[in-house]
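User: Fold this; tokens only.

Assistant: Input:
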Amino acid sequence: MYKQKKLNFGCGKVIKPKKDGWINVDLQKAKGIDKSFDFEKFPYPFDDNTFDYIFSDNVFEHLVPLDKVLQELWRISKNGAEIRFIIPYWNSSGMYQDWTHKNFLNEVGVRNLLQNPGYIHRKKNLFKEVKIKFIQNRLLRWIPVKICWALGKFLNNMIMTMDVTAKVIK
């Protein structure tokens, strides 16, 4: 039986089990972290077409150039692999509370980054089937997400994070 290779990209203290196929990487060195390296220096220490699944939770907003980071994650992913990342919504308080945040993204920015090759001088799409799930403010969960999303264009803290999933095209 084939065991998927999964990358926990920017794992921090959330270490995923090796027995389930996870490799945990981060900038820092600590117990349970398999590899430590600078995510803004390329290439990453992995071979082409290594991973079936990449997960990243609140990491992408810290990295520049983000298009190069995604191209590198694409390189180390297999065709059809899923890349899932969670990032703060551009106008949420979580985005502004950390001075190390460098990328302020909404759904249009994410789609341009992932699916618009001309936008960042790429010849082809690297990703397809981009799905974005909006996570609204806890106190507003009684309001339908679509209403929070619409109001979030004018009011801060309606949408707190985006949970993005994209498939790799090779």
